Amino acid sequence: MSEIHASTTVKVIAFQLIDKEYALPVHQVYSIEKLMHITRVPGTVSFVKGVINLRGVVTPIIDLRSRFGLSDEQYDDSTRIIIAALDNIEVGLIVDGANDVLDIPVDAIEPQPEVVGSLGDEYITGVAKLDKRLLIMLSLQKIFK
Amino acid sequence: MDMNQYLEIFIDESKEHLQAMNEHLLQLEKEPNNITIVNEIFRSAHTLKGMSATMGYEDLANLTHKLENVLDAIRNQQISVTLAIMDTVFSSVDDLEAMVEDIAAGGDGKRDVAAIVQKLLLIEQGEAAAAIDVPEAPADAAAGNSLQYDEFEWTVIDQSKEQGFTCLEVAVSLRADCVLKAARVFMVFKVLEKCGEVIKSVPSSDQLEEEKFDETFTVTLITQEPVEDIQAKTKKVSEVEHVRITEIVSGTQEEIKTPVQRAVPEAKQTNPVLEKETIQPAEEEKRAAKSSKQPVSNKTIRVNIERLDILMNLFEELVIDRGRLESISAELNHSELNETVEHMSRISGDLQNIILNMRMVPVETVFNRFPKLVRQLSRDLNKQINLEIIGAETELDRTVIDEIGDPLVHLLRNAGDHGIEMPEARLAKGKPAEGTIKLKAYHSGNHVFIEIEDDGAGINKERVLKKALDKGIVTEEQALGMTDRQIFELIMASGFSTAEVISDLSGRGVGLDVVKTTIESLGGSITIDSVEGSGSVFSIQLPLTLSIISVMLVEVEKEKYAIPLSSIIETAIVKKEEVLNAHNQQVIDFRGKVVPLLFLEDIFSVPHQEEDDRFYSIVIVRKGEKMAGLVVDSFIGQQEVVLKSLGNYLSNVFAISGATILGDGQVALIVDCNALIK
After folding, report:
1. B386 in active site
2. Which of B300, B451, B534, B669 is close enough to B440 for a disulfide, judged by CB 3.0 to 4.6 Å?
3. HEC letters along B37-91
4. Rounded to whole angstroms, what are the CA distances from B137 to B74, B77, B141?
């Protein structure tokens, strides 16, 4: 995290899940894909939806809604897959929509308040306030676990 | 001039030349009189010398130069091939290899080669050779070596003898100061051809014409003229120093004249034997055909493997688009578009095959250094070991090839050192004195198997167990319940060594466990089978991390699965009534055998949608001797696919060995039949 404090702003990819906005540092995100055919892999945990063919690489897909224990919903045209990578592990995250790349000033990021909505706080590294938007910063490490 | 850009090419090519030299040297050892092989070695050495001199590696160039001199002498039959010479030549090639390795590792390629250079010099001067066991090759022995004849030449010799001709070997040495050697050779040939028929010459006539010889050449002549006449006539050619004539007597020759010093009697030319002349053109042709039989070398270029990966991934994207295009054209139903799309599909299919095959390398690239290794091993151990290589053409992914070399070397050494017994011990046991190590590679299922089999002493179970107990690797209780195989595998446990004498080759007790770790890190496994007294088999199973396999695509409800063709015995469709129940297990009677049924739908918990059929589509698969019937909904067909891993995130999914990308861009999972059959 020292990296973030050193620079004055941090570039993030912002995306939606139900009514909230979340963010991942841009260096952890490889690409954002439209929804494509997902092949179910049997015998895996329920939030692993399966694998996709990402330009020749078989990539596992996690549904963030079910990962966070949120209500299931049908995928629609705005559903996106965010391909994120951490320590040689590449995983796609299904989100309701992703359309923003934002520069967040470092001092706008605050530690997570004691009580935050429905999401378990173990996935959260902080909360950023930007004008009227509230971005929840996620930890890939925890999501992948 | 900056040589760095050429360094990689230099290293690659040097390695190739050294490998070629090794192979040819081994061949030469078997056929010491085959000059063609010497020429091949010479050519490689010469190229290597040139390259290393250009690159500024003086030691390398120097040693190669000395080696070249020796080879040149062998080629010109000044010295003959002996075991001692072969050893020296081999060890100088070893030195060369070490130097090239050093350069490849970023060193300067310097190495103390004085000792070996000295040895080579001695050989070159004929001293070492004479000192050891070549009495027939003294420095002045112009033509001591008898020629080797092939079957065809022997037939000619035998037939002409039956017709009353004699077959002579005429060894001619020219004076050292002879200027126009080729011209003298021509004159000698002319004289000889008038006396009879020349059926062979060493060096070959081409080389003689190009003056590629020192002072001596040997000609085989079929004639009716007396030996003395031929000798005299040949001597008449100016600048001829010696003429030595020996007669060939069915397989052997006997010397009938020793060199005569410079006597030039007049002699008349007799008429040539006509019938012989008529045969000659045909023979000429044969000889030409023989000399043109050069090994065909493949033209290749080197490509970085990363580029191939990129190419492959790009191509797969193309395949996805092809799939889309196909479905669009099917919807539009436009005939010209359809045609174009079909054509494109065919071309991309061919392209796919080519790209997939590009990454595959025959295991030969690893195996080809082993004959020399085993030769050295048998010399060091004073054992007689014969290496048999089977399946060198088996293809493996490049990444696996790079890793597998060292473990195999270790296992070969182990087999030679601990497996094969001393010749006396073998004879006492009623085995041939020469032990055999078989190195066998083959594809099976999703795996490549490499087996190292020796017909040596085998593994003594009691000794292994005792040692393992002593070293605390197993407890007594554990030992009681162990199968033979488990006991054998103890020798690969770390800190274990059964050899009573720790040898320099293997038996340091660190070897086999390293082998095991390396193979396991490649995702493979190693098993040992052994029968005491008759040998052991070390069997390495390697996954095809990235490889093409043939699969059968099947459909289970809406999902597609790929079953490796190598596991499949056959497919069958059976009526539901034919399924029997055997204690909670549904079975079928398949060609007289009871085969248990496995419902993929249940195993993979596929969402159930459709109504059941009256029939079951069954894929009969096997693992070793055991069989099982996988129940699927329908068969789609056979296809060559690229095996891909599910990624680091999803490791160890039950009964799934990987995934593949189908023509339509979707991912299909590959069923691991080995996991389904216990």
Report:
1. no
2. B451
3. HHHHHHHHHHHHHHHHHHHCCHHHHHHHHHHHHHHHHHHCCCCCCCHHHHHHHHH
4. 11, 9, 6
* Chain A residues touching B559 at Cβ < 8 A: 39-40
What's the pLDDT tens digit per position in B526-574?
A: 888 888 888 889 998 887 655 566 789 999 888 899 998 877 888 988 8
- The pLDDT tens digits for B10-20 are 888 888 888 88
Tens of pLDDT, residues B307-356: 887 887 787 777 767 777 887 888 888 899 999 988 988 898 888 778 77
Q: Could you report the per-residue pLDDT of A93-104, keeping only the tens digit for each?
A: 999 888 788 888
The pair phi, psi for residue B332, each rounded to 5°, is -70, -30
Identify the closest residue of chain B to A91 by CA–CA distance.
B649
In this complex, the residue of A37, A60, A88 whose CB is nearest that of residue B646 is A60
Strand ranges of the sheet holding B667-671, from the earlier edge strand across to the other edge: B634-642, B548-556, B559-564, B667-671, B656-661
Mutate to test the interface with B, among A53, A88, A90 (most CBs of B within 10 A): A53
The answer to whether B320 faces chain A, any CB pair under 8 Å, is yes
CA-nearest residue to B315 within chain A is A56
- B313 and A48 in contact by Cβ < 8 A? no
* A144 interaction partners in chain B (CB closer than 8 Å): 649
**CATH for the B364-543 domain, from 3.30.565.10, 2.60.40.790, 1.10.10.10, 3.90.380.10:** 3.30.565.10
> Greater confidence, B429 or B161?
B429
Return phi, psi of residue B572, to 5°. Answer: -150, 155
Give me the pLDDT at residue B320, please: 64
Please report, in angstroms and rounded to a whole number, the separation of the first and last CA atoms in chain B: 65
Query: Which of B320, B559, B649 faces A144 most closely, judged by CB atoms?
Result: B649
The conformational region for residue B391 under phi > 0 = left, psi -120 to 50 = alpha, else beta, is: left
Give, to the nearest 10 degrees, the angle between helix B58-75 and helix B35-55: 160
Per-residue model confidence as pLDDT tens digits over B163-185: 777 777 888 887 777 777 777 77
Which of B606, B647, B655 shows the shortest C-beta gap to A59? B647
Q: Do A55 and B603 lie within an 8 Å CB cutoff?
A: no
Q: What are B236-283's pLDDT values in tens digits?
A: 777 777 787 877 765 444 444 444 444 444 444 444 444 444 444 444
Q: Does B316 touch chain A (CB under 8 A)?
A: yes
Nearest-by-CA chain B residue for A145: B649
Sheet containing strand B585-590, edge to edge, reads: B568-575, B615-623, B626-632, B593-599, B585-590, B580-582
Q: Does B344 touch chain A (CB under 8 A)?
A: no
Could you please state the CATH topology (level 3) that the domain comprising B151-288 is classified under. Answer: Alpha-Beta Plaits (3.30.70)
B68 is catalytic: yes
Task: Indicate if the pLDDT at residue B286 is higher than 60.
Answer: no
- Shortest Cα–Cα distance, A35 to chain B (Å): 13
Q: How far apart are CA B77 and CA B145, in angstroms?
A: 7
Enumerate the residues of chain A whose CB falls inside 8 A of the CB of residue B560. Answer: 39
Class of domain B4-132: mainly alpha
Of the listed B22, B414, B446, B674, which one is catalytic? B414
Q: Can you tell me the ipTM of this complex?
A: 0.83
Record: contact B313-A55, CB cut-off 8 A: yes
CATH classification code of A2-144: 2.40.50.180
- Beta strand ranges found along B334-434 (DSSP E): 360-362, 385-390, 395-397
Minimal Cβ distance to B313: which of A44, A51, A57:
A57
